[in-house]
């Protein structure tokens, strides 16, 4: 089941994403700034890969969305929202 609250939070930080055929959502990678949406994030809470993300161009990846937020230096209130949503 897709965590829509988490999708909304990530969209507010890095912009609107597009759903992929694999069930992930793709975004423009903030690290390599590729012109197409190449950063894929898994929002499926039932998946063992929940919160994993990877850019298919530059290879930027992690197992937690919090590391993406750290890279982007998002405000503390967004981290608090992320912790509440993901219960991390």
3D structure, described in words:
The chain is an alpha+beta fold. It has a single domain, classed as Alpha-Beta Complex (DNA Primase, Chain A), CATH 3.90.580. The protein is 34% helix and 18% strand. It is built from 3 helices and 5 strands, in the order αβββββαα. A 5-stranded antiparallel β-sheet has the order 1-2-3-4-5, covered by helices on one side. α1 runs antiparallel to α3.
Key structural traits:
about 90 residues, 5-stranded antiparallel beta sheet, alpha+beta, 5 strands
Question: Helices and strands in order, then pairings?
Answer:
Elements: H1 4-14, E1 18-19, E2 25-28, E3 37-41, E4 53-55, E5 61-62, H2 65-72, H3 76-86
Antiparallel strand pairs: 1-2, 2-3, 3-4, 4-5
Helix pairs in contact: 1-3
Question: Can you summarize this structure?
Answer:
With 88 residues, this protein is of the alpha+beta class. Helices cover 34% and strands 18% of the residues.
Count the beta strands: 5
SS strand fraction: 15-25%
The side-by-side strand order for the widest beta sheet comes to: 1-2-3-4-5
Distance between termini?
Answer: 18 Å
The count of helical stretches stands at 3
Helix content: 25-40%
CATH class: Alpha Beta
CATH architecture: Alpha-Beta Complex
Rounded mean pLDDT score: 94
**H/E series:** HEEEEEHH
Low-confidence stretches: none
Structural class, from helix and strand content? alpha+beta
Number of domains: 1
Largest β sheet strand count, sense and barrel closure = 5 strands, antiparallel
Radius of gyration, taken over Cα atoms and rounded to an integer in Å: 12 Å
The rough form would be described as globular
CATH fold descriptor: DNA Primase, Chain A
């Amino acid at each position: 089941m897709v965590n829509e609250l988490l999708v909304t939070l990530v969209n507010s930080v890095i912009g609107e994403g597009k759903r992929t055929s694999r069930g992930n959502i793709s975004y423009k990678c903030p690290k390599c700034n590729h012109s197409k949406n190449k950063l894929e994030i898994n929002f499926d809470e039932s998946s063992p890969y929940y919160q994993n993300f990877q850019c298919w161009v530059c290879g930027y990846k992690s197992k937690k969305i919090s590391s993406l937020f750290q890279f982007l230096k998002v405000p503390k209130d967004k981290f608090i929202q992320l912790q509440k949503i993901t219960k991390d």
